[in-house]
Give the backbone structure.
Amino acid sequence: MLRVQIFGLKNSQATRAAERFFKERRVTIHMVDLKQKPLAPGEIRRFIERFGLAGLLDSEGKAYIDAGLKYYKLSETEVLGRVERDPKLLRLPLIRCANRLSVGHDEDSWKAMLATAP
């Protein structure tokens, strides 16, 4: 049975869209609300290896701009610390299906996940 893990925020429009997308296709969802439980270091590392830290950050988002991250030169460790405290800095949702990953609202990637699933 196909299972998808969605990392996001309950009040995020993009996270709700991903949840709806997979539910409509009768996929089992494991939702991780990042406000309740931050990403595990191994999980965030998996996404960083695939997309790079810059690819995970929502550099156009209000939280990113309000935090002043456009102007600060922070180390990866410092940025990850901020992300842990404020998951709104990420392009949500982060989705994992087996070894396939997706960042942000990306229906083409979600469809590809389902098409290549066993």
Notes: The chain has one domain: 3-115. The first helix runs from residue 13 to 24. The mean pLDDT is 91.
